[in-house]
Amino acid sequence: MHILIVEDELGIVQFLKQGLQEEGYQITTASDGSKGFELIQSQKFDLILLDWMIPKINGLDLCKAIRIKDQQTPIIFLTAKDTVQETIEGLKAGANDYIKKPFSFEELVERIKVHFRNKKQTENLTLGNITMDLTRHIVLKDEEEIAMTQREFELLAYLIEHKGKVCTRNQILRDVWEINFEYDTGVIDVFMNAIRKKLNLKIEEDYIKTIRGIGYIAND
What we know:
Number of strands: 12
Helix content: 40-55%
Structural class: alpha/beta
Number of domains: 2
CATH architecture of the largest domain: 3-Layer(aba) Sandwich
Radius of gyration: 20 Å
Distance between the termini: 19 Å
Strand content: 15-25%
Keywords: DNA-binding, Phosphoprotein, Transcription, Transcription regulation, Two-component regulatory system
CATH class of the largest domain: Alpha Beta
Strand order of the largest sheet: 2-1-3-4-5
Oligomer: single chain
Protein name: Response regulator transcription factor
Organism: Flavobacterium procerum
């Protein structure tokens, strides 16, 4: 998951970037609202951590600008502003959450996980003519439902969520199987073969490619 941090205090940026990268997140940073808005227009982020008091475009105005074109990406305010009126103002601007500085890093990580879970539960995933309805937990190919086991569903969703990026077998074991120790990665190939067989992918439907010796990549 790709997180944008818009924050002008260098110490906080370095602290958050290192900690969140260790949690497995991809991090991009901006030190002012103008740069943050520029990044948001050119890249897709899964969550935004936004300070209120930042140069050029303040966090409140940036949040409003984001919401004009993007209603889905979770935004968490990180700020010293903590009056009831300021909290209400931030939420009305479109923020999903509000954490007062100084804050616990552990609490922030848990809140991020909650927003990602909520985001996943309301999204559909697509890959070519394949659609995954995460709310109803079904897979459709050309509008025909494809029956999959829980693990097959989770593996396919993971590859589509990381569309365009190579997913190594070890990453898949860690994030899908939740295995953080040495384990036979061959089990992933077994599940991938089952998924491909169920989807009955034709030659022109080369949506999931094997990267020999490394893992898999999904692409439209």
